[in-house]
Amino acid sequence: MKLQDLIRGTGIVLQTMDGDREITGITCDSRRIEKDGLFVCIAGTAVDGHRFAADAEKAGAAAILTQRDLGLRTQIMVKDTRLVWAQLCANWFGNPAEKLHLIGVTGTNGKTTTTSLVKSMLEYDGHKVGLIGTVQNMIGDRALPAGHTTPDSYDMQSMFNLMVAEGCDYCVMEISSHALDQQRAAGCVFDVGVFTNLTQDHLDYHGTMENYMAAKKKLFSMSRRGIFNVDDPWAASMMEDIPCDVTTFSTKDNTADYVAHNIRHRADGVSFELVGTGQIGRVKLAIPGQFSVYNGLAAATTCLATGMAFERVIEALSAATGVKGRAEVVPTGRDFTVVIDYAHTPDGLENICRTLKECCSGRLVTLFGCGGDRDKTKRPKMGAIAASISDYLVVTSDNPRSEEPSAIIADIVAGLEGTKTPYTVIENRVEAIHWAIANAQAGDTILLAGKGHETYQILKSGTIHLDEREVVADALAKTE
Description:
By secondary structure, the protein is of the alpha/beta class. Helices cover 32% and strands 23% of the residues.
């Protein structure tokens, strides 16, 4: 691609460089610099790409984008390399997002389930849909591995390009606060942006809840319509002074555009009446819990915003199934129940614990840990929350990363002081699951919280395979 075509729309004015020069590739990864390519220097949280600019020039890079003067012959200075990188990636792939209807979902909890429901419902209505998310990326029925919740700009545009090539007309994607803050989706225009909720998470990155909220709010400056859960206390701030049209949903506020009435919880799901625009329909959703009502409302309101008929929305939502690792019931063939859930925040853990407590006939046994190298303040909070709802706790490891698991567990146990809920500490997560299965009583519900869809565990020594479904099956075999 010619340099002048690559920088189109970025505001870059070439002064000494030849705009007709062919660029062989673009990268912001110093390990992928190639001759006659373009290297973008991005100051990351761990490494500053400007350190590698001189090496890139020596390797034959045709152009190097920087945010400061490095005295290089091939440098092009811009104010914000992250922003320009996103624009370059879109140009490199021919701006494929312009050929898709984009739907972005942001919030602390519910993103994965909401995007999955929206994808399922749009497909029910005859569309071919791509999905970008935490669990996996998908093009129609074809699954691709996922890394970050929202990929880097290059990988994102590459995914858009594949979706267009394979006939998708919609892309539904989770948009993380990190991605919005780092402008990975800059230049994209979303038909619909969705706000699920906001609770404490990622304060190690954002510092304050206000900064966290501000990052997520950026989605709605990129959207034509915003869908908001007005039951969340942050919704008013999220909706303030945004340029897009607004649609609201609620389980409590009858002034919202769409409201869930007559909510009925069952062990295998939830049902409610969706009321709005003078219409009413009965939804039966095969995912238990009050949070499933909110995810269902978000998905229904989103699909209505795309123009799907109300009756079709009711049918499509009622036909949708759950998501791996989200309130996932693992078959045991025994007189107790095992549920795997991704809950890894105070709010998420409280939601799933309350949901299961309402449904279980025996004890609620909650097994959980907290991730290392992440917000430490939520650890005692999660311990206290789990103890206040559960009948028994098994405190164990999650993804300790570079931290010592015992130190993380100590932070959790600090939140158990003053509670009367009995607990057992077993640092090794596999051993902890085996212990919980071996000590299960009739009617118990065993919640394995934190890992959800993940099939690995990140330790200081590296990443190992850990699929809790396999661990449960092994534990059951050993207790026959």
